[in-house]
Amino acid sequence: MEDIRPRRSALYIPGSNTRAQEKAKGLPVDTIIFDLEDSVFDEVKPKAREQVVETIRAGGYGHREIVMRVNAARTEFFEDDMTAAVKAKPNAVLLSKVESTAEIFAAERHLRGRPETQGIALWAMVETARGLQDIAEIAASVRTPEGHRLKGLLLGTNDIIRETAVKGGGDRTPVLPWLSMAVLAARTEKLFILDGVYNDFADVKGFEAECAQGRALGMDGKTIIHPSQIEAANRLYAPSKAEVDEAREIIAAFAKPENAQKGVIAIQGRMVERLHAKIATRTLKLHETIVARS
Ligand SMILES: CC(C)(COP(=O)(O)OP(=O)(O)OC[C@H]1O[C@@H](n2cnc3c(N)ncnc32)[C@H](O)[C@@H]1OP(=O)(O)O)[C@@H](O)C(=O)NCCC(=O)NCCSC(=O)C[C@H](O)C(=O)O
Ligand SMILES: [Mg+2]
Q1: Each residue's pLDDT tens digit, 206-235
Q2: 99: Cβ below 6 Å to ligand 1?
Q3: Are β-strands 92-95 and 264-267 bridged in parallel, bridged antiparallel, or unpaired?
Q4: What residues pair up with 272 in beta bridges, in sequence order?
Q5: Which of 32, 125, 142, 225 sits at 20 to 30 Å (Cα–Cα) from 14?
Q6: Is the CB of 15 inside a 6 Å radius of any atom of ligand 1?
Q7: Would the pTM count as exceeding 0.95?
Q8: How much is the ipTM here?
Q9: Matching CATH number, 9-236, of 3.20.20.140, 3.20.20.60, 3.40.1400.10, 3.40.50.1010
Q10: Nearest CA to ligand 1 atom 51
Q11: Ligand 1: which atom is nearest the Cα of residue 159?
């Protein structure tokens, strides 16, 4: 069955920031990502790891999806991070700087054969030049028994900019081809995909423009770094009123007895096919889930 869980806003919180972790219990985000990677100084990682396990096990985050971002499989921290993830049992483990299917399989080895980890998904961050080159193959690992837990891709645009030396900021022209390539890889394998972060959390207009752009590119939501970004991400990644009205109109039109045997109809001078009814059904389901939540 298709995964239509809303992931409009996915908030990163440093694993070492207990104040922000507590605060997030009252924030209207869809997803919380407890970070053990780049926001945590190396010397502090062991303490942050313990802290995150304790916080996730204690719960209190309601409907929010709980994710733990672990250090890359190539680092000295990975094994301990994965052991901690098994203890914490988040909804998903986010693998950072993924460059090959082997890294997905390495994470799976920690989870395999343990009934208590059955519900833990794997998400992969693509944020290196190598990862971008091999993104289709990484996404396709979902078709293998060792990669079946892979559910989504996340973009790490800060690292992409660092690795490739393209100019960041502005309208993201230099990275657009890679963002589109990532969307294509995700859609090919029926994975969800979340856009990278917008660092300038005081710039509301710039953030809104980037959300609108990400949505137009086909992203399912935005990874964010600050509470000030939640409202805009939730608003711009939710179906708009016009989209919901149109979806209702399409479904109602195909439900009429005279259209029961038709593959294509006209609504107000526009061609509408059964494929549009499928999109409309998805839009309405997403909308209803969001409404029920709020
Ligand atoms: C960016 C920040 C360091 C800013 O922190 P600060 O100066 O403390 O912000 P404010 O004073 O404006 O905070 C106001 C209140 O909001 C709470 N807060 C702030 N950030 C968060 C958060 N992320 N989650 C929950 N709550 C948050 C503060 O506690 C204040 O509340 P109160 O105490 O009640 O007054 C900070 O926002 C931050 O650390 N953000 C997350 C950074 C992070 O996790 N970075 C790593 C992931 S991003 C990344 O790596 C991208 C990717 O890999 C790539 O390559 O692109
Ligand atoms: Mg990164």
Answers
A1: 999 999 999 999 999 999 999 999 999 999
A2: no
A3: unpaired
A4: 265
A5: 142
A6: no
A7: yes
A8: 0.99
A9: 3.20.20.60
A10: 156
A11: 55
